[in-house]
Write a structure and sequence with these properties.
Helix content of chain A: 25-40%
Oligomer: heterodimer
Largest sheet of chain B: none
GO molecular function (chain B): heme binding
Structural class of chain B: mainly alpha
Shape of chain B: flat
Membrane topology (chain B): Multi-pass membrane protein
Main location (chain B): membrane
Keywords (chain B): Cytochrome c-type biogenesis, Membrane, Transmembrane, Transmembrane helix
Number of domains of chain B: 1
Bound molecules: protoporphyrin IX containing FE
Radius of gyration of chain B: 21 Å
Distance between the termini of chain B: 37 Å
Radius of gyration of chain A: 36 Å
Number of strands of chain A: 25
Number of strands of chain B: 0
Distance between the termini of chain A: 59 Å
Strand order of the largest sheet of chain A: 1-25-24-3-2
Largest interface: A-B, 74 and 72 residues
Protein name (chain B): ABC-type transport system involved in cytochrome c biogenesis permease subunit
Amino acid sequence: MAVQEMEKQAPTPPGFGPVAWLRWTWRTLTSMKTALLLLFLFALGSIPGSLIPQRGVEPDKVAQIYLNDPVRAEWYQRFQLFDVFNSVWFAAIYLLLFTSLVGCIVPRTTTYFKELRRRPPAAPRHLSRLPHHTVLDEGLTVEVAARRLRKLRFRVETGDGWVSAEKGFLRETGNLLFHVSLLGLLVAVGIGAVFGYRGNVLVVEDEGFANTVAAYDRFMPGNQVSAESLEPFSFTLDEFKASYQVGGDPTKIGQPLDFSAHLKVKDAPGAPQRDYELKVNEPLEINGTQTYLIGNGYAPFFRITDGKGQVAFEGAVPCLIEFPATRVSGCVLKAPDAQPGQLGFLMRFLPTVAPAQGGGFTSSFPGDLMPRVQVLGAFTGDFGVRSGRPQSVYELAPPEIMKKLKPLVMGSTAPKPLAPGQSFDLPDGLGKLEFVAVKEWMTLQIAYDPGRVPALLAAGLATVSIVFSLVIRRRRVFVRVKDGTAEVGGLTRTEGSAAGFAEEFADIVKVLSAGDKDVR
Amino acid sequence: MSAEVLAEASDQLVVGAVLLYLAAMIGFALELAYGRARTDAPAKGRVKQPVTVGAPQDEAPGQVAVPADPEPPAWAGTAGKVGMALAWVGWAANASAIVTRGLAVERWPWGNMYEFVVAICLAAVTAFLATQLRTNVRFLGPFVMVVAVLGLGAAVKFLYTAAGPVVPALNSYWIAIHVSAAILASGLFIVAGAAGVLYLIRGDGLSRLPTRSDLERVAHRAIVVAFPIWTFAVIAGALWADKAWGRYWGWDPKEVWSFITWVAYAAYLHARVTAGWRGRAATIVQLVAFACLMFNLVGVNIFLGGMHSYADVGN
Ligand code: HEM
């Protein structure tokens, strides 16, 4: 495509010897053709990233592909298609584009500065051949024409019987700045990736968070981030409020309207405590570290009293949302310290209980208007918690262990859904489970990206300078004075602006023929 | 007026706009079909440039309207004028539909696909009418109207969403900045796209369709204006993402395709300026870019999802 047209500009093939080769490589890399090709590749390379689930964004979908189609997943993995934007090949395109941009900006900058100092060229002999041309009958001298053009902020050069004037250098300035700011943008993004970090954490009401690596559920540092460099702030979540649409259009009932988390924040260990209302679109910023509210759900508070009358568990259990529209959530609770036997529960949290079609219960609204906990199963036996194997808090036990557990209640023997304050006694005097109260959890993303502001500045500069580059035209006006008549010719070198220049040319001619008005 | 009345009025106005645009389209089409045929003058008499740095010049050799054999009937011109009047009334209906919707829901009225498409149609028609105020581009009328009718029709038929609130992530002044810019740029790109398609359909010779050089000029102008606006829209999107999602760029499908669209239009501009492509080749690049834009609007929302699918935050 672009290739053939630009072949003419392509560098000649190398001679022999390493220096010649190096030079050839550099020239090829920094040629316009290569730069455009790389730009295309950069765009093309990002397509698979939009079509195939990405590990950093949708890890569960990636896991699903591994489950359903392991062969395909293997191939994707081989080409790093689950991590396109961190892949070696994407980085290679990025770096080559970067080098290419540098290689094309440097020579253009020198040309630019030379151009700045260059005088406008001599007027051509036959002005009537120019696209815009007119003849003035009045006597115009070279000096007057030059002065009037200077007044119009042209750069002017005069000669024997001619004036040559040029304007519109801001176009080049804009164009160069645009390309430079693209480079700046690439650098800023790179800085962010190397010196920044990102992490996720889930916080339940009345619990806190202190910004240390260990406190994160998932922590993704750039490779120059040390554990000590984290901003030492902390906060507790006082209250989480969610509001949902109640009336109006039936299809909209239950749509979230607002989420808001009331935090008590300490900017540093010794600092005074302050209140902060964290909302979607309104992150908490502390010295460049941003804390964002990205999700929320329910964490019912439970108390388990074991067969010996001891409290074996007491705390809030964050439940995973199963149906976002109604916030039906699944909860898992383990009490490995319970005596005489360990206890485990599979439960469902229903924020607004309602009878389900075909029996059973479900939730009809995401807000906690009539919260209930439904016990789906209770088990005793060895949950393998102390085996040292890593376990998920959202899974009661791996399948091989589940098989060996003894079910205490299941299906029809399950109790009616519990309201807050209600409890339910396990068979065989093994203890009881009490649903104490409803709490909510929120998930946060905490990010530090030193490249944010530079990226913003570069992007802003790019936008402004592209306007200059596209809108301003370079134009030249020539005047030749001979025998009392003045010929005026004009042209613009800029693409697509012929029509606009015709008007400007007419105005310039008007100024040039302004008579004696400005002659002092 | 109550919110329900306003919402109802908005729905009616959209339907009204579809009918008016349809009528305008017929008027424009009659003028085009029975009016003068035009031809592209052969590109001759190029002026030799005294300076030859950079781009080839664009002092277009003017195209001439060659009268077709039988003198066109007088009513053809009238049909075009009536079409133009109807287009303005349709525009007013379209704009009022958006305003009443905004008043009904008490927020910026482009929070879902339906509202977004209605607004883009308005932007496309606005771009056309605004250009018409300065230079005569009535020849584009039938085609811009077709796009607007199809767009609004599809919005009503397939995308309709009753008036209501938006999810918290969309509740931000950024929607006014980011989405408005995207809508504006899309409207202009649509005008350029319509001109591009016509360019390819039209042959070189005598035809009732607008001349190729007219079409190319309109497309290029529209893109030159739209490109910085699109650049701004993408950047504003990044700023919003930085506020809402905790990163300014995360290669979300919508972000990826906005970027691809941007690169493709940049490639079009480059192809013209630095490679000197004109006519067919440049038009094809433009239409590839346009296809990316449309895929971003339709395909990404329907097939790919991602954070931009206006779903729950963080899902
Ligand atoms: C890497 C090497 C590159 C080179 C050598 C290069 C060179 C050029 C040149 C010579 C122009 C024309 C200047 C003028 O009309 O006065 C131009 C314009 C432009 N470039 Fe680049 N460019 C490069 C990369 C890029 C990249 C990565 C982008 C981003 C998408 C880009 C976007 C643009 C745009 C939007 C224009 C304005 C086109 C117009 O004036 O109509 N360029 N470039």
